[in-house]
Design goal:
Layout: E1 32-33, E2 55-56, H1 85-134, E3 171-172, E4 189-199, E5 202-206, E6 213-222, E7 225-235
Antiparallel strand pairs: 1-2, 3-4, 4-5, 4-6, 6-7
Length: 240
């Protein structure tokens, strides 16, 4: 075979062209025939092609002549790797632990928010009840002073209380307003009041007799848990 040319140049009956071998040289349209088996190329899949003559040509009944001087292209197919059972189990465990941790954090945040809200409500209830008690007289203005409720005074509602120590022992759940109306949405809440006679010089010291000072303690409970407690001192000099 001459260098840079095909081995033969028969009449070419295909519109294709076969490149020459040399640089910048194109061969004429040819139908190349190869007698050696290693030069033979398999037919195109799905195209009719006779194998009687090992010709190289276009797809119109011929085989395409190889392009000399060009490297052979190879297409590599990469293997696809699937997840193993161990990887799936490990991923499931990690996702499960993360979900449990997230739910626990959410539950703790919800409980914390509820606790803060309940304490704010308890402080409001304590302020309201303590202000009501501090507005009452130091001792009963109509009858002879008696520790606690005087004769004929009802235990409820609080609208009948006219002095500080009438509130002694007040314990109500659910809480009530002064006129006796039950507070809505406070089923688990409780009012508790204690009134002690104390020494003016030492309010922590409880006295058996009236020395001119009384210590008032207001406790607010929610679900049997103390959420707010307030203490105030009322003296007989504060009486209007």
């Amino acid at each position: 075979m001459p260098s840079g040319k095909w081995s033969e140049r028969p009449t070419y009956d295909s519109p294709g062209r076969s490149p020459g071998y040399g640089l910048g040289t194109n061969g004429s349209p040819v139908r190349a025939e190869y007698s050696h088996a290693r030069h033979r190329m398999p037919p195109f899949q799905g195209l009719p092609c006779s194998t009687a003559h090992f010709t190289q040509g276009c797809a119109l009944g011929y085989r395409i002549a190889p392009l000399r001087g060009y490297p052979r292209l190879e297409i590599r197919q990469h293997d696809r790797h699937a997840l193993s059972l161990i990887e799936v189990v490990a991923s499931t465990m990690i996702v499960g632990m993360m979900a449990v941790a997230a739910l626990n954090s959410l539950g703790a945040a919800t409980r914390s928010s509820e606790s803060i809200g309940n304490r704010a409500v308890a402080l409001g209830l304590a302020d309201e009840l303590m202000a009501e008690i501090m507005q009452a007289a130091y001792e009963d203005p109509a009858q002879s002073p008696t520790y606690g409720r005087e004769s004929g005074e009802a235990a409820s509602p609080r609208s009948g209380f006219d002095d500080v120590d009438d509130y002694e022992g007040w314990n109500q759940s659910p809480p009530q307003y002064r006129e006796g109306t039950t507070m809505p949405d406070r089923a688990l809440w409780r009012h508790r009041v204690r009134v002690y006679r104390v020494a003016p010089s030492n309010p922590t010291l409880v006295s058996a007799s009236d020395q001119g000072a009384k210590r008032i303690q207001v406790v607010i409970e929610y679900d049997n848990e103390v959420l707010a407690e307030q203490i105030a001192i009322r003296t007989n000099t504060d009486q209007e």
